[in-house]
Design goal:
Blueprint (H helix, E strand, L loop, with lengths): L3 H5 L4 H11 L4 E3 L1 H14 L4 E6 L11 H12 L3 E6 L21 H15 L8 E5 L1 H16 L4 H4 L3 H8 L10 H13 L3 E5 L3 H13 L6 E5 L25 H9 L3 H11 L4 H12 L4 H16 L2 H15 L9 E4 L4 E2 H7 L6 H9 L3 E3 L2 E2 L6 E2 L2 E7 L3 E7 L1
Helix pairs in contact: 2-3, 6-9, 9-10, 11-14, 11-15, 12-14, 14-15, 16-17
Keywords: Aminoacyl-tRNA synthetase, ATP-binding, Cytoplasm, Ligase, Nucleotide-binding, Protein biosynthesis, RNA-binding
GO cellular component, one term: cytosol
Subunit structure: Homodimer.
Length: 410
């Protein structure tokens, strides 16, 4: 991203700073000149801009990849603008086809309601709930009715809809496209009309839908919104985008110790990408850290700062400090202060069955695989015998680096 528009159109320090904050970590800001004009008008009139983020509650939990756009919303919120957290309870009934090679199964209203409540509670860990407008797109989508839906559908052509990559690729491959999927970008675009949005945020995979909002606002005689796309955050592996299905994610409701340890597990290269997209430190502060690491400082020092910042955001500063100490203890082979306590019966009990019953392994066969890999310890000693039977007593059982249980066996 560049800021050439600033030099072409001299702007106030306040607008320049707001533009810099808008561009930080962003993939695209379109059209940038229009956004500068909106910022300048807002500064002159004192009227906050309306900034929209829509999320379909397709799953109950948010991972930190989702917070990339939420962080940007918070930054713009802190500049004094009105942020709108839009829950797509109506569009979830259709299912977003973005990036899909098959029709997405729609959710039930019960699933949507449950997920929406969880989503907002978790999003409030990033946004200031007192300054956030919460809306549901069923408010204006359901009253449209059949007549309104037909009138809306008349404002966009099939040819233009087929320019969309996922539709184009599916059609070319002979994969079915259901007619209702064409309604999704139309309904998301109509949200911008209903909310009179000045700026809509989304991931890079949402660009077509965001541009639809601009098109429909013009069709309805409104000033079109600008769009700001944010990159999709790479997960713990540093390769694939963060996803629960790929198990390379950090859930924002995970416990502090797990969250801290997961951040520390990322590569030194990925760390700087995460700093840009997830940290609330200024770019100047991040550049100082980078220079220190380039000058010989251990990159782990920078990673520890990032892990503590992210953990504190979703827990507390005290929890982040405790997580750091817990990680140090584990790396030295120590036992965390607080571990689950489990009471089992059936002594003498085979180690495989004990691991399964204590929820330290999903099955006896997986327990045996862990033992073969040297990943199981009882009272600090590595277990190498899959046939080991434990007599009655209390044991500290460890699986891998992070799973512990104090097992009372009777």
């Amino acid at each position: 991203m560049n800021q050439s528009a600033v030099t072409k159109n001299p702007v106030s320090d306040g607008v320049g700073r707001a533009l810099e904050i808008s561009l930080r970590g962003a993939d695209e800001l379109l059209p940038q000149d229009e956004w500068i004009k909106k910022l300048a008008r807002s500064e002159t009139t004192g009227q906050p801009l309306r900034i929209k983020l829509g999320l379909d509650p397709t799953a109950p939990d948010i991972h930190i990849g989702h917070t990339v756009v939420l962080n940007k919303m918070r930054q713009l919120q802190d500049l004094g603008h009105q942020v709108i957290f839009l829950i797509g309870d109506f569009t979830s009934l259709i299912g977003d086809p973005s990036g899909r090679n098959s029709t997405r199964p729609p959710l039930t209203p019960e699933q949507i309601k449950f997920n929406a409540e969880t989503y907002y509670r978790q999003a409030s860990m990033v946004l200031d709930p007192a300054r956030t407008e919460i809306r549901y797109n069923s408010e204006w989508s359901e009253p449209l009715g059949a007549t309104g839906m037909i009138q809306l559908a008349a404002k966009f052509t099939v040819a233009r809809m087929m320019e969309r990559n996922d539709f184009h690729d599916r059609f070319k491959a002979g994969n079915p496209i259901a007619v209702h999927e064409f309604l999704y970008p139309l309904m998301q675009g109509y949200d911008s009309v209903a909310l009179k949005s000045d700026l809509e945020l989304g991931g890079t995979d949402q660009k077509f839908n965001l541009l639809m909002g601009r098109h429909l606002q013009q069709e309805y005689g409104q000033e079109p919104q600008c769009i700001l796309t944010m990159p999709l955050l790479e997960g713990l592996d540093g390769i694939e985008k963060m996803s629960k299905s790929k198990n390379n994610y950090i859930g924002i409701s995970e416990d502090a110790n797990t969250m801290y340890a997961k951040v520390l597990s990322i590569s030194d290269t990925l760390m700087w990408r995460w700093y840009t997209l997830l940290s609330f430190k200024s770019l100047a502060e991040i550049e100082v850290l980078k220079a220190e690491v380039a000058g010989g400082r251990n990159p782990k020092d920078a990673k520890v700062l990032l892990a503590k910042e992210i953990t504190a955001r979703f827990h507390s500063a005290a929890a982040a400090e405790a997580a750091e100490q817990d990680f140090i203890n584990r790396s030295k082979g120590g036992v965390p202060d607080e571990i689950p306590e489990v009471t089992l019966s059936g002594a003498p009990l085979g180690i495989g069955a004990l691991l399964k019953q204590a929820n330290l392994a999903p099955s006896t066969s997986e327990a045996n695989r862990l033992i073969e890999g040297g990943g199981v310890r009882v009272d600090g000693s590595v277990v190498s015998d899959k046939g080991l039977k434990l007599e009655a007593g209390t044991y500290v059982v460890q699986v891998g680096k992070r799973k512990f249980a104090r097992v009372a066996l009777g």
